[in-house]
Amino acid sequence: MSIHEECGVFGVMSSAPADVARISYYGLYALQHRGQESCGIVVNDDGLFVSHKDLGLVSEVFSRDVLASFPKGTMAVAHTRYGTTGASNRSNCQPVEVNHQKGRMAIAHNGNLSNAAELRALLELNGAIFHTSSDTETIAYIVTKERLTAPSIEDALSMAMYTLDGAYSLVLMSPQKLICARDPYGFRPLCYGRTADGIYVVASETCALKAVNAEFIRDVEPGEILIISKDGVVSRQEHCGKKPKKLCIFEHIYFARPDSVIDGHSVHAARINAGRVLAEVHPVDADIVIGVPDSGLDAALGYSRASGIPYNIGLIKNKYIGRTFIAPDDRSNQVSIKLSAVEEVVRGKRIVLIDDSIVRGTTSERIVSLLRDAGAKEIHMRVSAPPFLFPCFYGTDVDSQENLIACRHTDEEIAEIIGADSLGFLPVDRLPELTGDSGICSACFSGKYPTGIPQDTRKDRFERRLSELNQ
């Protein structure tokens, strides 16, 4: 099992009509790693919103004909999703669109609210009717409710932020403005830039800015609201500095692309540092260091540099397996189809195998078995994250504790279960060394949550609640 992240958000603001749908398409393509269940684009054509959303990869949902059907516009918001809350169905595709008394709104959201259930219950008691089971619709309802009395959409968003708790990086579009906001903790990344012809771009990661030839300006600060309009960019900071910064450290370990820079810290450099720390705390005599593609490769290089053990490519990933791949009935065959060992590299060798995480242990077991079958003499597994011990409420799809192998077994027992000769995790107290910044969230490793803990933490809690009410 792999860990998944909530999603990627993208926004475009142009002073003159432009092909903002195509720009959004390229931006989403660069953010595809953040979500592979569904995607959507909403274009603002002089106040008229035109949208297309569906399940699937960006390349599947947005064909050449679909992109051509979009009008030129001055703004767009876009989203690619992996659902940590809410079922994977068309109703949960984003951006969420709202028509209300004060106008239109489209909103894309990355993260999870820790108080979503309470907010949703209050809204329903006041007559709200929900069409999705995602946190994003809850945010949209609260912003809309505030907008009925607020003088502007940015004022409504600011008032809503006093109610919302948890992780949210937002891109919101009204008929006249593109607005982005980041929660006061800064759990999830958000940045913006500008193209040479003056088009502003907002994105979850800097790699998406580069994909559309936009020059990075800066990260959106935790708690900040940015209003981008034909008059330029205005920053509102009434929510800044109200909470300690808590960027999810798993962004640097796994989620983000290695060519991205988040809050001033290179993702690639952070993973190199993770490998260096692993070499210091879990040294071993070995012949080669290899990484599990893709996010284990940088950490493997860091381990090699720090230990002096040569780095090599021992596993090859099949890059052509997409969402539509029909997986074999025998799940044990899935790893061997997605990954292949380079026998000439691993045969007869003592190997240090670097991966980004171990969740249930089943995937690690199959990778170790793959290397054994290719003739590896010894396999010493090193993990560039601490063991998962607690669920995440902020947008990371960490399984429940009964399914987390580290909650039930020691490191030595896990090594035996997965078939490795030894196993070492990154110590949780060394996590700040990855970026040199102590303002991180590591709750899924440490259990130290920055916010209140939801009473119901099930991924499908809203669907279950609806089912229970209908019985």
List keywords for this structure.
single chain; 471 residues; alpha+beta; Glutamine Phosphoribosylpyrophosphate, subunit 1, domain 1; Rossmann fold; seven-stranded antiparallel beta sheet; globular; disordered C terminus
Classified by CATH, the class of the largest domain is Alpha Beta
What is the architecture of the largest domain at the second tier of CATH? 4-Layer Sandwich
Radius of gyration: 22 Å
- And the CATH topology of the largest domain? Glutamine Phosphoribosylpyrophosphate, subunit 1, domain 1
Q: What is the count of distinct domains?
A: 2
Q: Your description of this structure?
A:
This protein has 16 helices and 23 strands. The chain starts with 6 loop residues before the first strand and ends with a helix. The protein has 2 domains: about 5-245, Aminohydrolase, N-terminal nucleophile (Ntn) domain (Glutamine Phosphoribosylpyrophosphate, subunit 1, domain 1); about 270-320 and about 330-445, Rossmann fold (3-Layer(aba) Sandwich), CATH 3.40.50. With about 475 residues, it is an alpha+beta fold. It has helices spanning about 20-30, 60, 65-70, 115-125, 135-145, 155-160, 205-210, 250-255, 265-280, 295-305, 335-340, 345, 360-375, 410-420, 445, 460-470, and strands at about 5-20, 40-45, 50-55, 75-80, 95-100, 105-110, 170-175, 180, 190-195, 200-205, 215-220, 225-230, 230-235, 245-250, 260, 265, 290, 315, 340, 350-355, 380-385, 420-425, 440. Strand 12 and strand 13 (about 230-235) form a beta hairpin. The strands form 6 sheets. A 7-stranded antiparallel beta sheet has the order 3-2-4-1-10-9-11.
